[in-house]
Specification:
Distance between the termini: 58 Å
Shape: globular
Order of helices and strands: HEHEHHHHHHHEEHEEEH
CATH class of the largest domain: Mainly Alpha
CATH architecture of the largest domain: Orthogonal Bundle
Largest sheet: 5 strands, parallel
Number of helices: 11
Structural class: alpha/beta
């Protein structure tokens, strides 16, 4: 995308399309890390969703108890803790010496004390001297998932977002590195919806395929062109449903005027697997692009495959053949 921009194709003339809003999570985080502006259609920005900001607030306050913004937001996630109690605890924390920050002994309403003690233990285990990373992040995500039904009316999609956030956090070497690349906006700038961009800004377009109907861009990248996403694994029950998914891919591909990229991940990481289960599943190219059509596509892989090293000498190649013959002779 940046290479095309340097070549004269503005970001507004490029689009990233996907089947569902959750498929763009990693792209959004990478764009934010690189300070590349973007606008998303057909779903909320991942990092601007309230539940994602809640988890980041807990992690930030666990790392820095002097962070009043993060602490004020995190404490109000506890059942029975309101703005007044949160402000009182923050004032006590600010006045106390670093060695005397006993959160479980803070003055909170009597009815909230059991939940508060659990939350204080979570903060202590997630701090710099607590559980190692990414275990600390996983504990925070699990605690928040237990609170989602109380905090939000639509818990199921938010549960999936928190699971995705935990997987992303595990790719960072430490909590500090993870948090420095994901900035928690102040309350005046935070919302569940992204605001409209200014007319003179150049920004990348992120959109679901359904929201892209009727639009065209110079360059289009389609994420997750694999079976299970396109077609969706929930839309393969009948021939009519599969044909509708084929038309959806056709819509996505015909949004491009000059450049089209189909992105195929090698694997998908999964959660809630048994201890002896695989942590990922391999992805298969969408059935709508069979092997017979691959000659019409330029195939690239990342990272590039290593070039085969030629043998150092004819004698070395002969030694390999001799070893093979010896192995076969052992089974005669």
């Amino acid at each position: 995308m940046l290479a095309r921009r340097e070549g004269g194709v503005r970001l507004r003339s490029q689009a990233v399309l996907f089947r569902t809003a959750q498929h763009s999570v990693r792209v959004e985080i990478e764009l934010k890390r690189r300070n590349i502006p973007f606008v998303k259609f057909g779903g909320l920005r991942f990092l601007e969703a309230a539940h994602v900001k809640d988890v980041l607030a807990i992690l930030r306050w666990a790392q820095n108890r002097r962070d009043r913004l993060a602490g004020f937001r995190a404490m109000q996630l506890v059942a029975g803790i309101g703005p007044r109690s949160a402000s009182r605890v923050l004032a006590n924390v600010a006045a106390a010496a670093p060695a005397c920050l006993l959160l479980d002994e803070q003055p909170v309403p009597e009815a909230a004390k059991p939940a508060w003690r659990e939350f204080a233990a979570l903060i202590a285990s997630s701090s710099a001297g607590g559980a190692p990373w990414p275990t600390a992040g996983e504990r925070v995500c699990r605690w928040y998932q237990e609170q989602i039904e109380r905090l939000h009316e639509d818990p199921l999609p938010r549960q999936a977002d928190i699971e995705q956030l935990a997987l992303i956090a595990a790719t960072y070497p430490s909590a500090e590195r993870f948090l420095t690349e994901l900035v928690l906006d102040p309350p005046s700038a935070s919302s569940d919806e992204a605001g409209p961009p200014l007319l003179d800004e150049d920004y990348l377009i992120l959109s679901t395929i359904h929201s892209a109907k009727g639009q065209e861009w110079t360059a289009v990248s389609i994420l997750n062109a694999v079976d299970g996403c396109i077609p969706s694994d929930m839309a393969t029950g009948s021939a009519a449903a599969i044909e509708e998914e084929r038309r959806l891919l056709y819509v996505a591909m015909t949004r491009a005027r000059s450049h089209l990229d189909l992105v195929l991940p090698q694997r998908f990481h999964v959660t809630q697997q048994p201890g002896f289960g695989d942590r990922h599943v391999y992805a298969a190219r969408t059935r709508f692009i069979p092997h017979a059509l691959l000659a019409d596509y330029e195939q690239l892989s990342w990272p590039p495959p290593a070039a085969a090293q030629p043998p150092a000498s004819p004698q070395a190649r002969q030694q390999v053949f001799d070893l093979t013959a010896r192995m076969r002779a052992m089974w005669k």
